[in-house]
Specification:
- It is built from 12 helices and 14 strands.
- By secondary structure, the protein is an alpha/beta fold.
- The protein is globular.
- The chain binds pyridoxal-5'-phosphate.
- The site of pyridoxal-5'-phosphate has 15 residues, from α4 and α5.
Length: about 375
C-alpha cells in the first residue's frame, strides 16, 4: 500500500542519529591523536564494559566471531574435541568450533525459550566432550544455574555467546559472567552496535585475560616476540570511541526495546505464539519473534501492509550447505522454529506508534 509510511525492520542511520554530534566531536580528537590501533580508547572501553557488565575483565576484539574463536582457541583442546552447542544458533557459533578443528555436537532447544534445553545436554556428553557453548538467543539468558551445574559435574568450561544479549540477566546475574568466557558482538545491529565490526570477550580469570590479549595481537606480549600462534583481532580505536559513547546509553536502549516488547506482548492476539516471560529472566529483546504456521504468508501480508520483518533464521545450521556432512541427525525442534519464526521490528529507532500499527495489522491476519 503506497499511501502509508513504511515501517522498517531496522534503520541504522535513525538508530545512531542522536549520537552523531558526540561522534563528530570525538572523531576530531581521534584524528588528532595519531594513534589508531590499541591505544587509550580501547583500554577505556574495556574498563567501561567490565564496569557496566560486572565482569572482572574485558578484551576488545575485531568481531563476535573472533571472540568465540579466540575463547575456544585459548582452551588448547586436542583437535577433534567435541563441543556442545545449540542446534538453532546463528552459524557463527558453529563456525568458531569447526574452524578451531573441533566437532560441534548440537543439542536441541526448548521450544518455549528457544535456548538450549538443559534436559538434553548430559545425554550428549562423551569422554571427548571438552566444552559447552551456550547462546543467549534473541536476548534471553539460558537456564544458567542448571547448565553451570552440569558443566561443574563434568569439569567442562562454558563459553557464553552473548552476541544478542547485552544487559540480559538470569536470577540477577548478567550474561557473560556465568561461564569462563562471555563473547559479545558489536555488529551495528546488535543492542550495543559499533559503526563497523567489533567484539569483545569478558572473563573471570586474569590468566585468561592475559592470554586473550596476547592472542588478539599476533601472540605477542612484547613487540616482535611471539609466544603464541596468535591472530590479528584487535578492536579499532575508532570503533571503541563510538562504543564508549553508546555504552553510556545502553540502559536507555534496553529500556526502549523492553517497552516495545511489553506493547507487543499486551496487544498481539493469541493466534500467534509469543515469547515467554518469567521473573528469573531480564530479557533484552535483541529480537522479538512470534511463531505462526503460515509464517511465509504472514511475512508477505505484513510486507504488503508496509511492515518489514526478518526471519532469524530461515535455514537451520544442519541444513546449511557449508556444514554438509557434519550433522546426520534430525533436529525437529530447531527445524520447527526455523519454519515458523518471524521477527518483528523492535529497534531503538522503532516508535511506539509503529508497534501499535504492527499489532493492529497483525491481529487482522
Ligand atoms: C551476531 C552474532 C555472532 C557474530 O558476531 P559478529 O560480530 O558478526 O562476528 C555470533 N553469534 C550470534 C548468536 C550472533 O547473533
Amino acid at each position: 500500500m503506497s499511501n502509508i509510511k513504511p515501517i522498517f525492520y531496522e534503520n541504522l542511520k535513525e538508530l545512531n542519529k542522536e549520537f552523531f554530534p558526540e561522534f563528530k566531536e570525538k572523531f576530531d580528537d581521534f584524528l588528532n591523536s595519531g594513534w589508531y590501533i590499541l591505544g587509550e580508547t580501547v583500554e577505556t572501553f574495556e574498563k567501561n564494559f567490565s564496569n557496566y557488565n560486572n565482569s572482572n575483565f574485558t578484551v576488545g576484539l575485531a568481531s563476535g566471531l573472533d571472540a568465540l574463536h579466540l575463547a575456544i582457541n585459548s582452551l588448547n583442546l586436542e583437535k577433534g574435541s567435541e563441543i556442545i552447542v545449540p542446534s538453532n544458533t546463528y552459524i557463527a557459533t558453529i563456525l568458531a568450533i569447526i574452524n578451531n578443528g573441533h566437532i560441534p555436537v548440537m543439542v536441541e532447544p526448548d521450544i518455549k525459550t528457544y535456548n538450549i534445553n538443559p534436559d538434553l545436554i548430559e545425554d550428549k556428553i562423551t569422554n571427548k566432550t571438552k566444552a559447552i557453548i551456550v547462546v543467549h538467543l534473541y536476548g534471553k539468558s539460558c537456564e544458567m544455574d542448571r547448565i553451570c551445574a552440569i558443566a561443574n559435574k563434568y569439569s567442562l568450561p562454558i563459553i557464553e555467546d552473548c552476541a544478542q544479549a547485552h544487559s540480559s540477566s538470569f536470577k540477577g546475574k548478567n550474561v557473560g559472567n556465568f561461564g569462563d568466557f562471555g563473547a559479545f558482538s558489536f555488529y551495528p545491529t546488535k543492542n550495543l552496535g559499533a559503526l563497523g565490526d567489533a567484539g569483545a570477550l569478558t572473563m573471570k580469570l586474569e590468566s585468561n585475560y592475559q592470554q586473550i590479549r596476547t592472542l588478539r595481537n599476533y601472540g605477542s606480549k612484547t613487540k616482535y616476540y611471539n609466544d603464541l600462534k596468535g591472530f590479528n583481532s584487535r578492536l579499532d580505536e575508532v570503533q571503541a570511541m563510538f562504543l564508549n559513547i553508546k555504552l553510556k546509553k545502553i540502559n536507555k536502549i534496553t529500556a526502549h526495546k523492553r517497552s516495545l516488547a511489553d506493547l507487543y506482548l499486551k496487544n498481539i492476539s493469541n493466534n500467534f505464539i509469543k515469547p515467554i516471560v518469567h521473573d528469573d529472566y531480564f530479557d533484552v529483546y535483541h529480537i522479538f519473534n512470534i511463531r505462526h504456521e503460515r509464517r511465509d504468508l504472514l511475512k508477505k501480508y505484513l510486507y504488503d501492509n508496509g511492515i518489514s520483518t526478518e526471519i532469524h533464521y530461515p535455514v537451520p545450521p544442519n541444513k546449511q550447505k557449508a556444514l554438509e556432512g557434519y550433522f546426520n541427525n534430525n533436529y525437529p525442534i530447531s527445524e520447527e522454529i526455523h519454519k515458523t519464526t518471524l521477527s518483528l521490528p523492535i529497534s531503538y529507532a522503532t516508535k511506539v506508534e509503529e508497534v501499535e500499527r504492527v499489532c493492529e495489522v497483525l491481529n487482522k491476519f
